[in-house]
Every structure is written in structure tokens, then in C-alpha cells.
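ok new one. same drill as before - C-alpha cells go in, u give me an amino acid for every spot. 395 of them this time. try not to just spam alanines like last time pls lmao
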């Protein structure tokens, strides 16, 4: 019998216990022996179906020689960071869904894992139940990855879908997302694009081999989206989605950002709805490869955690393809990127200078799409016009 422990018995932690219990047979088949959760660290003991697993004492797990893998599902940095370090130093593999910790300290924790001959794996930290980090680092290992973009936050995609398709209010759908266990403990991270930002950092770290610090990355969420723009976009064959995007630039530089985009209805990304996420990885040999599935929720996320547990136990070795340099140099502003831009401005006429723009609708306000221009030029234009809305078009 192989024993594991869980740190933090909330949505994902509980999901891990459920997946281990429900899938005993296939898991045993893969490991050659049964797997069970021995202990779960909680802040305070409580009445719960899994009360028999609970402890308030981290040292019980740290010093338990029987526990070979620890699943960290506390979230945030402080306690999660300290406990992860201590587990790795105690020679235990650590698996996590905690994108904040991986985005901010992943490089250092991977190095600590390497020194202690154990693994630090975090498939669940990006895209919930979608396998994307393993395919990126293993199945696409023969490529130079040039770009990754995707819908990386289940909560905001769920909110946008319900608001647009069912006319529901923002507050009401956010509450529903929280009840379903999709949202972060502080949902500001979801709605302001910070959670998607942490995920695009992890993808960029792995794809480009350099630390992309979340503090470097401009992040814009969904709170500034006006339903008027959703309607205009819809009438002209576009949908509005929150995307995270990172690109390899010339001269070894890289960039990343999170922002709402207009996406053509012909692009399958435009049809990714509810809690689903989709990630496109563009490799120089594969071209675009798309990964799709549930980006949040108890069981999908737990599935990715348990798969990492199985991998740690099967391999019992460090995975050298997962890691990146701590050097954050070479990050360029995404304002250098060229895109078409959607604008809605509070005027009924456009100056001659904008003759090449494609006017979508014109009344007391004008909605138009520019030719491909840099983000800097889009900002200049926005300052010059009475701008009510502006966002990139995904080309
Ligand atoms: N929910 C989802 O769909 C997904 C979540 N994730 C990530 O997984 C992680 C966990 O998320 P989720 O399960 O939703 O969050 P929850 O808030 O549901 O669970 C976190 C749990 O950790 C407990 N906890 C907090 N601090 C400590 C501590 N010091 N010691 C012991 N337990 C502690 C909390 O207890 P208390 O209630 O007492 O605060 C809570 O039960 C986060 O990093 C999140 O970003 C990743 C992918 C999807
Ligand atoms: N809050 C996150 C949870 C999964 O990462 C989301 O909604 O995507």
C-alpha cells in the first residue's frame, strides 16, 4: 500500500480523496499496489466525511516516513510555500494545483526538488483537468514553441457565457461560480485576470525556459467589458473572450499578457464556453495544437493532481525537462506586438487618418477595427479619440 498526504482539504483536496477512492482499481493497475490517502492537513478539525484523515499538525506529515507524496492544495503562498519546501527537504515528492506558488516560486522549488532527488509536479495548476503541461514539455519536446494562447480561467469564461447567453448578472454568476468551487478564495484574482496571468507565466516559463515574473505581465480581466461591445462584436461575427497569451520574440526576448479579445466565430476558441478552457500551443514543427477541457472544478482538477502522484510513484526520478532559468531578463512589453484593434468611440465621424479602419457600426458612437498596428499605436489612438472601449482582435 502506497500512502500519500494532502495539505488543505478544500475543493481540490477533497476531490483528490474522492478520485483516489473512486478509481482504486485503475490506479492500482498502474502502480502495481494500492494507493491511499493517509493524512490530510486542515487548519481546524471539523465534522466531515473525511474527518478520520484530518490532522492540524503539519509535522505529523513531514516526519511520516510512510508518506511518499504530498499533494498541496492550500493555495496562496505563505503556508503553502513553507510546507512545500519542508516536504521536499524531507525527501517527499510534492504535487500541486497552486498556480500562484508555481508562478512565483516554481523555479526555486524545482531546484530544491532536484537537490533532494524528488519531483515537484503541477499539471493541475494550468487548465484544471486539461493535460497541457505534460504534452507541452514531453509530446511537443521536439519543437521550438513560438506562441501559446488560450482561455485560461474557468470562472471568467463561465461568467461571460452566462451573462451573454442567459442575460444573467455579473454578481449572480460569480456567486454561482463560487458555489461550484471554480473561483479562487479571493475571486478578484479571477475577474481581474490575475489567475490567468499566473497560468500564462507558467506556460511561458516552460515554453521559453526563462522565468516570466507575474509582476512583469500586464493583466486585464473582464470587469471592464461592456455588454454593448459583446453585442456589436456578435453582430459582426466575433465573440469576446478573456485570453492569456505569450510569444517568443526575436533576439531571445519574450512577452506575455492577459486581456479580453475579439475572436472570429470561425476560430474554435470562440466556441469554448462555461467552465471550459482551451489552450493553443504553436510549435515550429506541429503548427497549432489545441487542448480543451474543464478548466476548474473539484474532480477535473483532482484528476490532474492524482495523475501527477501516479507519475511520481512510477518514475521515482527527477524530470529534467521541467524547469527553467531564474533570469527574468529579456521580457518585452506586449505593446510592441502588432494586432488589429477593435475600438468604440463616442463620435459619429472618423478623421481621414482612419480611412483604412473597417467601420462596424456608426451612429452617435462609432465601432471600428483598425488595420494591424502596435499596442503603442493603439494607445496613442485611444488617447486621441473619445474612446469608450478598445481591445485586440485575435488574428
Ligand atoms: N478550485 C478549482 O477549480 C481549482 C483550484 N486550483 C488551485 O488549487 C488550490 C486549492 O484551491 P481550492 O481547493 O479551490 O481552494 P479551497 O479554498 O477550497 O481549499 C483550500 C483549503 O486549504 C485550507 N487551508 C488554508 N490554509 C491552510 C493551512 N495553513 N493549513 C491547512 N489547511 C489550510 C483551507 O481551509 P480553511 O477553509 O480553513 O481556510 C481550505 O480548506 C489553489 O491554489 C487554487 O488556485 C487549481 C485549479 C482549479
Ligand atoms: N479559479 C480558477 C480555478 C482553476 O484554476 C479558474 O476559475 O480557472
Amino acid at each position: 500500500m502506497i500512502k500519500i498526504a494532502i495539505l488543505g482539504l478544500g475543493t481540490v483536496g477533497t476531490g483528490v480523496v474522492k478520485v483516489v477512492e473512486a478509481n482504486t482499481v485503475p490506479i492500482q493497475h498502474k502502480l502495481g499496489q494500492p494507493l491511499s490517502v493517509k493524512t490530510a492537513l486542515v487548519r481546524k478539525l471539523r465534522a466531515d466525511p473525511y474527518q478520520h484523515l484530518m490532522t492540524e499538525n503539519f509535522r505529523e506529515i513531514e516526519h511520516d516516513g510512510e508518506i511518499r507524496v504530498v499533494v498541496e492544495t492550500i493555495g496562496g503562498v505563505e503556508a503553502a510555500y513553507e510546507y512545500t519546501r519542508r516536504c521536499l527537504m524531507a525527501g517527499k515528492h510534492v504535487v500541486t494545483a497552486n498556480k500562484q506558488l508555481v508562478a512565483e516560486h516554481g523555479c526555486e522549488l524545482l531546484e530544491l526538488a532536484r537537490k533532494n532527488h524528488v519531483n515537484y509536479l503541477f499539471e493541475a495548476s494550468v487548465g484544471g483537468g486539461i493535460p497541457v503541461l505534460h504534452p507541452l514539455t514531453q509530446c511537443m519536446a521536439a519543437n521550438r514553441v513560438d506562441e501559446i494562447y488560450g482561455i485560461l480561467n474557468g470562472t471568467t469564461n463561465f461568467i461571460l457565457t452566462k451573462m451573454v447567453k442567459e442575460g444573467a448578472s455579473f454578481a449572480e454568476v460569480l456567486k454561482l461560480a463560487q458555489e461550484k468551487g471554480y473561483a479562487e478564495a479571493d475571486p478578484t484574482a479571477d475577474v481581474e485576470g490575475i489567475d490567468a496571468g499566473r497560468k500564462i507565466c507558467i506556460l511561458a516559463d516552460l515554453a521559453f525556459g526563462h522565468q516570466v515574473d507575474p509582476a512583469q505581465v500586464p493583466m486585464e480581466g473582464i470587469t471592464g467589458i461592456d455588454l454593448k461591445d459583446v453585442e456589436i462584436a456578435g453582430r459582426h461575427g466575433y465573440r469576446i473572450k478573456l485570453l492569456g497569451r505569450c510569444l517568443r520574440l526575436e533576439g531571445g526576448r519574450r512577452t506575455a499578457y492577459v486581456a479580453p479579445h475579439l475572436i472570429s466565430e470561425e476560430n474554435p476558441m470562440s466556441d469554448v464556453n462555461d467552465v471550459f478552457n482551451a489552450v493553443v500551443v504553436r510549435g515550429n514543427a506541429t503548427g497549432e495544437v489545441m487542448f480543451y477541457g474543464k478548466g476548474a472544478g473539484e474532480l477535473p482538477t483532482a484528476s490532474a493532481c492524482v495523475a501527477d502522484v501516479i507519475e511520481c510513484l512510477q518514475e521515482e526520478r527527477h524530470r529534467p525537462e521541467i524547469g527553467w532559468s531564474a533570469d527574468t531578463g529579456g521580457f518585452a512589453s506586449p505593446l510592441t506586438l502588432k494586432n488589429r484593434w477593435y475600438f468604440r468611440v463616442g463620435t459619429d465621424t472618423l478623421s481621414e487618418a482612419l480611412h483604412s479602419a473597417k467601420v462596424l457600426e456608426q451612429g452617435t458612437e462609432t465601432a471600428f477595427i483598425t488595420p494591424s498596428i502596435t499596442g503603442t499605436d493603439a494607445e496613442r489612438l485611444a488617447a486621441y479619440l473619445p474612446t469608450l472601449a478598445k481591445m485586440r482582435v485575435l488574428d
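The mean pLDDT is 96. and btw The chain has 13 helices and 16 strands.
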